[in-house]
């Protein structure tokens, strides 16, 4: 489901004689101004911005015409983050400009869209030499204070998939651990060995000394690499990088395809690509956030934690717990729910959450999710019956049985669950059972 979104920029983003001016849209204020200063590694920064913008206009699965979505930028005390999803929502890109990457001040905290247009992409591709690059994110002071002047409007179809993708990817990243770190030279050699083009195979990667080795089957400690061609975006930043780090959830023999994070670190910048478990799968359909959206138990905690969030580079869970007077586990549950509205993201490099506020209607992720909408309709129709041993859910002429596993997940007799076997979150019948709130049988 898509809505027509209008981005209003006071003028197009430009790069002129070393002055890179990125224009912002809405957010905490109209056309906010986040930063003004010099980038310490101009060529690397240009390559990183290009990578994030390229992901936003690429559809890796069934490539067709380019997408036209603008990246999201967040100013957060001592760093800036640029984020985007691919048109197919199967790749999430983020460029973190850390303190070593700039010489200037973050002048405002918040999140908004940033205009990276075709002429700017062409100009960034030509950045070279050692000339300094001055960056201004947002209109200059004079333009902000002027009511007249040109306004550049871009009307684009903004898919609800982006918001659902943001809601999913922070939960996915929070379950990952560092699996490998190799020098940039070895990373370049590894990327050259990968299948090129629109490859749809699912491979696995294991550490091998100072490099990585490909294998066709999962083993303990392996990282899934689905659609290796999706890593091509990293190549533009490779020559500036020091290391490549790889993150993934625990894998074992027989594991299904899993998501992964591939991060290049230059010392001043971190460019990360998060890949969905399979090339045809978009993060928007993974379903991991559905339980958080369906559960009301943590709503009060989420409201309390939201009021205490600040624009620190990473969120200190234990400090929040002390401030809120609740346990660290309750804070983590609250952050999971806040993430479903795009209020927080997760940085695998620092193993911590960070604060952002996306320019979306706060309730849109819940309203636009078909499974959640279907589950609420079942509850409202009184379709869920608990008999002490299992839940019975009636959907039209069909009757389904829902049971809870020992790990807290659900099984269901419906065709959807039989097809995905719990790998893409709960079905609408399990969600409806969760909403009813009473326990069902815990089985094997």
Question: Could you explain how this protein is built, in words?
Answer:
- The protein is α+β, with helices and mostly antiparallel strands and 444 residues long.
- The protein has 3 domains: 1-289 and 342-367, Box (Proliferating Cell Nuclear Antigen); 291-339, no CATH class; 369-443, no CATH class.
- The chain has 14 helices and 25 strands.
- Strand 5 (72-76) and strand 6 form a beta hairpin.
- This is SWIM zinc finger protein.
- InterPro entries: Znf_SWIM.
- Residues 400-438 form the SWIM-type domain.
- It holds the Pfam family SWIM.
- One of its GO terms (molecular function) is zinc ion binding.
- Quick one: how many beta strands? 25
Mean pLDDT: 85
Low-confidence stretches: 141-148, 438-444
* Main pleated-sheet profile: 8 strands, antiparallel
Would you tell me the structural class of the helices and strands?
A: alpha+beta
CATH class of the largest domain: Alpha Beta
Oligomer: single chain
Inertia-based shape: globular
Provide a count of the helices. 14
Give the N-to-C terminal Cα separation: 37 Å
Strand line-up in the sheet with most strands: 9-5-6-7-18-17-16-12
Evaluate the radius of gyration.
Answer: 22 Å
What is the CATH topology descriptor of the largest domain? Answer: Proliferating Cell Nuclear Antigen
Number of domains: 3
Helix content: 25-40%
Q: State which percent range the strand residues make up.
A: 25-35%
Second CATH tier, the architecture of the largest domain: Box
